[in-house]
Amino acid sequence: MSFLDRIRECNHHDLAKFRPLYVAGHRVGWVQHAMATRLAQYPDVFDVEEKAVALSPRFDSFEARSAAVAPVLEELRDAGAIPAWRNEPCPVATSFGMPPLLQMERAAFPSLGIRAYGVHMNGFIRDGNDIKMWIARRTCDKPTFPGMLDNMVAGGLPIGISLRDNLIKECGEEAGIPPEIAARATFTSAISYCKEVREGLKPDVQFVCDLELPSDFEPRAVDGEVEAFYLWPIDRVMDIVANTTEFKFNCSLVIIDFLVRRGYLSPDEPDYVEILSGLRQ
Fold this sequence. Notes:
The structure is a single chain. The protein is an alpha+beta fold. It has nine helices and 15 strands. It has helices at residues 3-10, 33-39, 62-78, 109-112, 163-175, 179-182, 234-243, 249-261, 272-278; strands spanning 18-23, 26-32, 46-48, 53-55, 89-92, 102-105, 117-127, 130-138, 149-151, 153-156, 186-192, 195-197, 200-202, 205-212, 226-233. Strands 7, 8, 9, 10, 11, 14 and 15 form a seven-stranded mixed sheet that branches. The chain has a four-stranded mixed sheet with strand order 2-1-4-3. It has a two-stranded antiparallel sheet with strand order 5-6. A hairpin with a 2-residue loop joins strand 1 and strand 2 (26-32). It is globular, with a radius of gyration of 20 Å. 38% of the residues are buried.
């Protein structure tokens, strides 16, 4: 195994299994053929053809599109086609920062292959000339990736909140980090990937930030999504990322990005150039 293996795992997909999804003439997603068949049961909302799926053009505003799609997604949820429902509306847009075409339940994004955005934070402390990193373990009853290792703080980006405000909120909810400390976090980069999953496709972007914490700070699980926090030497974190699949898949990429930026992965590393390009697909 290697760091490049983690990147390849995050970008394994076959678009032949999907049809493009269009909203207002813009491709915003990819729909599995089986899901397209389900959407064909709602001809008043979706125009389903052999090679594409489109939200009906008669819905010509953010409000109309959002209202039309919501009950369809709820029925699909009730039928078991959309798992891990969160009651968290997220924006559907042509790219980050553009006006959203509609809002949609976050859990439905993979089922429709829509790009989701989130924020992941590397929390660390100085240990002499070295670094120790805070690692979270997801609870075993979490509906997605239960029991896996995670970055110290991470969360999807709901509609109507800025990246920084969302980060500060997630810091408090997930790790008990006070706002005045969370505000010190520095946004450093973004990773992107396109991974085929059971529900569909995740062509997502995660904004990455770093937070150097006081050496005596102890995180605490506040919202019940984290089972435990560990403070590990960076060498141990590197070994787990490179040689296991214990981390949730996109968290490995966040850590690899950190290792590159901090000089722990240098051009002497095998596959260095491929690692750099693979972090942003």
